[in-house]
Amino acid sequence: MIVLAVIAQKGGVGKSMLARSLAVQGLIDGRKTAILDADPQGTVVAWGRRRQLAAPTVIALEDRTIEAAIRDLTARGADLVLIDTPPHSQPIINMAAAAADAALLVTGPYPEDLEQVGVAAAILQALRLPAGIILNKTPPKAAALSLARAALTAFKMPICPVALTQLVSHPYASAEGLSAQEREPDSKGAAELAEAWAWIKNSILVSLDTKKLAS
After folding, report:
1. Distance between CA 3 and CA 22 in Å, rounded?
2. Which residues contact 150 (CB under 8 A, 6 or more apart)?
3. Is 80 exceeded by the pLDDT of residue 214?
4. Distance between CA 155 and CA 163 in Å, rounded?
5. Conformational region of residue 143, where left means phi above 0, alpha means psi within -120 to 50, and beta covers everything else
């Protein structure tokens, strides 16, 4: 099993949306995915309650350790677990990163978003954890994205080539317990998620799958 921590130091950058959307994309790709909601706000757990489909499995951290929750999901048959971490909570971010095989660092494209990336990046780099950065909730204008990408090169982490545009398809899908690619499979949001997943799979998951098989 592979554990992927989804991390953002700043709130409001769409971290929970990304965690659940990637879990659904993993299902589409044939993986048995699950989500550990380690954020006390419980955004993904609430989404799971609205969801009429049984997969992905969604559980709250509650009073367990992250390791115990991962063991629970392993026993349920998950082969990919995404951890949705809380913003601003460095202890839980540290624990999630320590328990993970890799991490995705989520950020918006604006200066106030980017200035918060350094704290989370330092945690991942100290652990030498394989990680990548995803730009989320971005405007369609290329100029803003170019500036954000240039700023992010300072962290010396791979940056996903596709940025996820801020689209109403994501909150509308969430309200129905779905993800954008389920509610609107031919939409721009669905296409971007598929591209982001392909990058994550080829850049991170393939090498982890190989290591797991070798061990």
Report:
1. 13
2. none
3. no
4. 17
5. alpha
Range of the domain at 53: 2-214
Helix, strand, coil percent content, the chain, rounded in steps of 5? 50, 15, 35
pTM over 0.85: yes
100-107: average pLDDT: 96
CA distances 114 to 3, 63, 149, 172, Å, are 25, 32, 10, 27
Tell me if 58 sits within 8 A of 48, measured CB to CB: yes
**Would you mind telling me the total number of residues written for the chain in this entry?**
215
How many structural domains compose the chain? 1
Q: Encoding tokens for residue 24?
A: 């659904």
Q: How far apart are CA 170 and CA 14, in angstroms?
A: 10
Q: Check: CB of residue 22 under 8 Å from CB of residue 132.
A: no
Of 61, 14, 65, give the one whose Cα is nearest residue 42.
61
DSSP 63: T
Strand, coil or helix: 120: helix
Q: Give the mean model confidence (pLDDT) for residues 72-100.
A: 92
pLDDT one-digit tens code per residue, 128-143: 999 999 999 999 876 7
SS3 state of residue 81: strand
